[in-house]
From TrEMBL:
Pathway: Nucleotide-sugar biosynthesis; UDP-alpha-D-glucuronate biosynthesis; UDP-alpha-D-glucuronate from UDP-alpha-D-glucose: step 1/1. The keyword Plastid does not apply. It comes from hydrothermal vent metagenome. PANTHER family: UDP-GLUCOSE 6-DEHYDROGENASE TUAD. This is UDP-glucose 6-dehydrogenase. Its EC number is 1.1.1.22. Residues 316-417 form the UDP-glucose/GDP-mannose dehydrogenase C-terminal domain. Pfam families: UDPG_MGDP_dh, UDPG_MGDP_dh_C, UDPG_MGDP_dh_N. NCBIfam families: NDP-sugDHase. The lineage of its organism: unclassified sequences, metagenomes, ecological metagenomes.
Amino acid sequence: MHIGIIGTGYVGLVTGACFSEFGVSVTCVDRDEQKVKALKKGDIPFYEPGLEELVKRNVAEGRLNFSTKVKDAIESSLAIFIAVGTPPRGDGTADLSYVKEVSEEIARYMDDYKIIVTKSTVPVGTGKKIRKWIKEKMNGNVDFDIASNPEFLREGSAIGDFMRPDRVVIGAESPQAIAIMRDLYRPLYLIETPFVITNIETAELIKYSSNSFLAVKISFINEIANLCDLVGADVHIVARAMGLDKRIGPKFLHPGPGFGGSCFPKDTVALLHLAGERDAELGVVEAAVKANEKQRALMFSRLKEALGDVSGKKVGILGLSFKPNTNDIREAPSLYMIESLLNEGAKVQAYDPVATPDMKAVFPKVSYKKDAYETVKGVDALVLMTEWNQFRNLDLARIKSTMKSPNFFDLRNIYAPDKMKELGFNYYCVGRNSIK
Ligand code: UDX
């Protein structure tokens, strides 16, 4: 089978590379010429473990091609995936102008039956809009179907998530489209991945509901963590015991400085809009969003409280990306922390294994260091924002000896409070009796 993928951002590229690994012939299109040129050589514009090898191998074996022309992805493709960006507008609603542009271009070149599949996270009702946009621009009367096939890829482990997903969701209108989509995902069918086959609107809503529910889980445990600090309880033990209840499950109950990334913040707000437009109330999701904003602010106010005043103080930040194994800093809690520190006159020095260039573009005034040890030299406080593996086993005695004051803010709870106190740190974490 031959498929086309429009948009070689995170979702499009991972999807294209993984389908080609399944033996499908894939043409990925992006209008950015430089990007396409680089991709042909196997240069990936972002950090994602395993992706470079996958792209290089499948390009070399001729199954994965890149082009700047939408036409190339349409001719001879049975399915065309739309994976372009749907950035949030000022009011939080998704901007569908790229999706519309691509739909109209697909219409121009469509000469035979095709399925147009949305991979981008799009508001409920977009499938219908795409059908309308295509019909309006189509020459003649070619039969086509629309499908929604949301992705559930986590940055940093996207390839594993694609190859061994918890489920595949397919929303489509006709039995023919469903059969083709199933065929495309045959390798997953063979390893008994559950398939959820439904209508387009349901598939579109599954994506928003899943991400919003996970965001609710995180905000819930963050609020419980803050309560733990006030009553002398340990949130890790609370979360573990909660997670042992199979109805709750252990995942996404890790407290921290708040969720970030390209999905949870954007999708929760978009879902609230969708509900608002229909006068529906989603109070739980609304509360999760508010709790997340408060969590980010709380981390800074705790630091401020510990330092008295941050003006003129030197603060070291370890980890800038919104989570480990990615260079993505979109909505990262570190952005809020650094901005607050700089606004209040602190000097900031920081290190991240891969996200430094991205952060430098946003905060050129921060002093970027080459490793964790350089970052802690002479600081009044150290704030660990992202749980990269290389921060899990730091030489703590060395760190303490070079800090000006031993204020250690472990916002990912990777160290043991007792041990840190024993070593002489003023150790602060999230929900493990750090206040009392
Ligand atoms: C998420 C979804 O998991 C994925 O299915 C979807 O398709 C895209 O959005 P991603 O944004 O890559 O993936 O990261 P994820 O691992 O889900 O983490 C999101 C944020 O929540 C991060 O900031 C992370 O630090 C935070 N988080 C996650 C917590 O604070 N606690 C947790 O227990 C889990």
